[in-house]
Amino acid sequence: MNIDVQTKAADSPATLATSIYERLKADILSAHLEPGRKLQLRFLMEHYDAGQTPLREALNRLSTEDLVIGREQRGFFVTPISLEELGELTKTRSWVEGLALRESIANTTPAWEELLVVAHHRLERAPRSLDPDRFESNPEWERLHRVFHALLIGGCGSRPLIGFCEQLADRLQRYRALSSRKAFRVRKVSQEHSDILKAVLDGDGDSAVSLLQRHYEQTADFIKADLQTNEAGDIT
Question: InterPro entries per the record (predicted)?
Answer without folding.
Answer: GntR_C, TF_FadR/GntR_C, Tscrpt_reg_HTH_GntR, WH-like_DNA-bd_sf, WH_DNA-bd_sf
